[in-house]
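Chapter summary example.
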Amino acid sequence: MRRDFSDIIYSALVIGGAGITMLLLLAPTVVVVVISFTGAATLRFPPPSWSLRWYAELVNSPEIIGPAITSLKVAVLATIASGVLGTAAALGIARSRLRLARLLDAVFMSPMVLPAMAFGLSLLLVFNLVGVRLSLATLVLGHTIVCVPYVIRMVGASVQQLDPALVNCSLSLGASRFYTFRRITLPLIRRGIVASSFVAFLSSFDNVPVSLFLADARTEVLPIKLWAILEGSLDVRVAAVSGVLVIVTLTILVAAEWLGGFSRQMGRR
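The structure predicted for these 269 residues follows.
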């Protein structure tokens, strides 16, 4: 009886703690989404009236649409680059027992260990040292460096699950390494690549520290633009943009789960 009572108390504490944690994490997002449907001209919760006015305003807001397109372009390019580089690195590191592989793994993971602001400032100093002017290319490069660790970790988990006998059988039957990679390895790690690309895209699109230091005067990204708007005024369009981002993120999350088994890949990390 005492054990049963202790188990009940323990389960209640765990469930209660998890519920409070989820409430604290989700409440700000829910509040912002609710405010985005206000009919008033200021940010107030609860909204005095309901309207889609501010979502319609976004269509006629080139100062927001422009940075959003730039952020989308940077995120797509960074996702493609980090997907290719991270997958190649994961294939080389995941099953290697060499000390060099462990050293390279630590180097690739360093952007996740360093404080984000310090990392962005360090990249800026490096570019200034080598004489590279800030541009869209430097911004994409910075985002790629930040996104590569996510790809390495998640694709590496998929490579660890891959049975080496399948690759060895293909090679022993006369298939080339490229053919084996294309027909055996790549299809089996596809879920890890899709899931990691999803994480990389979101990490790039929402990145503030690297964008703050590496974007030039002509390259304005959405997070920095929203930050500047909120510093000047409590514009309700910011809440509307947040609502759009939440809907898009949930849509991509469902698509990633359907195509790549996102939750299973996160569970293997």
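To summarize the output: The chain has a mean pLDDT of 81.
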